[in-house]
Specification:
The protein has 272 residues and is mainly alpha-helical. Helices cover 56% and strands 5% of the residues. It has two domains: 3-80, Tyrosine recombinase, N-terminal domain (DNA polymerase, domain 1, Orthogonal Bundle); 103-261, hpI Integrase, Chain A (Orthogonal Bundle). It has helices at 3-16, 21-38, 47-56, 62-80, 103-112, 116-128, 132-136, 167-179, 196-209, 218-231, 236-243, 248-251, 254-257, 259-263; strands at residues 143-144, 149-152, 161-164, 188-189, 192-193. The strands form two sheets. The protein has a three-stranded antiparallel sheet. A hairpin with a 4-residue loop joins strand 1 and strand 2 (149-152).
């Protein structure tokens, strides 16, 4: 079996279990890089080869290394019937708190958007907490303006979930949909959906125009959405459902991010 046949079989396996396009792209890329580095045929691969490859990328973030291990584990288990990552210890994920914008910074970011469409995209991400991958795959038929809700179809983990639409955006979304009613996807360029990269670049440019000295990405708006909901008194289990988190522990990070909640704590000195 050659590398090309291995990669082709891997793509088939990933599609059979309906992995997301992003996962398929990442797994194919990582395995291809693995072969380029090791320079062996698939049947000759060993656990030591995996260790050498991981050591070569050890300067990357723990999450990147964990993803590489998952990609190689899946491919070798499915195609070679042996897990070549067995016995290799996974690096611990760093517990870095997510970057969050203040409400004033969110307003500046929205105001800096140069077009009606880019402004709506920023408002949509912030007001729904959607992942950028979920936003680009959102179809017009998934939006119900009368009920003020939308539906994520096959989000992370291939799960469907509903999200709420803010009153402030209903008329704008309605007008936008009317102008683009012939299209399938809510946000598209001609007849094709926008890519996550398109939106990342747009938001980065808006952050620069708004003079926000933080790393601002689509996911920053998701973090800000969750944090601001928590600060306004929304129950964390409701936030968990809105974000599509399977585990409450994933949502709990926002209890550590909320600076407004910390400001409410009175020092014992002030109470003397």
């Amino acid at each position: 079996m050659k590398k090309e046949e291995f990669i082709e079989k891997l793509e088939t396996e990933l599609k059979l279990i309906k992995k997301s396009e992003l996962t398929i792209r990442n797994y194919l890329y990582i395995n291809s890089k693995f072969f380029d580095f090791i320079k062996k045929e698939p049947l000759d691969l060993t656990t030591d080869d995996v260790k050498k490859f991981l050591a070569n990328i050890s300067d990357r973030a723990p999450s990147s290394i964990i993803l590489s291990m998952a990609a190689i584990k899946f491919s070798t288990s499915k195609i070679l019937n042996k897990d070549l990552t067995q016995g290799i210890e996974r690096p611990k994920k760093s517990k870095k708190l997510p970057e969050v914008l203040t409400k004033e910074e969110v307003k500046r970011l929205i105001d800096s958007a140069p077009t009606k469409k880019s402004k709506l995209i920023i408002q949509f991400l912030y007001s729904t907490g959607l992942r950028v991958s979920e936003l680009v795959n959102l179809k017009i038929k998934d939006i119900d303006l009368n009920e003020k809700i939308g539906k994520v179809v096959k989000g992370k983990g291939s799960k469907d979930r509903f999200f709420t639409l803010p009153d402030k955006l209903i008329l704008e979304i309605d007008s936008y949909i009317y102008e683009n009613k012939e299209r399938i996807y809510l946000f598209s360029s001609k007849d094709k959906p926008l890519t996550p990269r398109n939106i990342q670049k747009m938001i980065k440019n808006c952050a620069r125009l708004a003079q926000i000295n933080k790393k601002v990405t689509p996911h920053t708006l998701r973090h800000s959405y969750a944090t601001h909901l928590l600060e306004s008194g929304t129950d964390i289990r409701i936030i968990q459902t809105l974000l599509g988190h399977e585990n409450l522990n994933t949502t709990q990070i926002y209890t550590h991010v909320s600076t407004e909640e910390l400001k409410k704590v009175k020092s014992p000195l002030d109470l003397l």
